[in-house]
Amino acid sequence: MTQWVENPSGGRARGPRGLARAWVEVLLRPRRFFENGVAPGDQAPGLTFAIAVAIAYVGGRLLLAPETLSGYGRIAAATESVYLSAAVVLVAACFLVAPLVLHLAAAAGTLALIPVAENRGGVSETVQIIAYAAAPGAFAAIPVPAIQALAALYGCILLVVGISVVHETPMPRAVLAASVPALFVFGFAFGGIGAFEAAVGIDITPDPR
Q1: Is the pTM of this model over 0.85?
Q2: Where are the domains positioned within the chain?
Q3: Cα angle, residue 205 at apex, residues 202 and 104 outer, rounded to 5°
């Protein structure tokens, strides 16, 4: 997962400029980005990109609405320090939770691709697709439900486009393959479901009773 391919066939440029360029390109020209920016085995730039998006998302929430972050209140009460609790949440969310979510989503996406994509690529391509599709997550830091819901929706669209392009899958099948990782990443991790409910004033979360 963390291996860097020195001379990949395609793939992304390294460094802050490469991250910024990838973020802009995947948002504005997703099909071309996924055609040229995803390379077999070149997973580390994708993982780095996902962590950078997580830093923007969590950091933005800490600045704008820290009380909306799960666990922040308990950590703040335990440490009795705003800065220490923010640092703990940021490090845990970005360097522990984000890679774990990416791994789990990639595993779910890989399994979902088996029955729908005959010419699918490898696991590393799926990891990169999900990582780069998370680009709109940076906007989900803004504490406005409509913006958060739109960011999650656009992330889902990018995921479908990426799966369709990289795994050479018709769009309807790409939607099926993307459904589980999209729900996991954008519905729950980025809070898309809660934001949609708040934006439209309905409750779509199943009642546990």
Answers
A1: yes
A2: 15-200
A3: 135
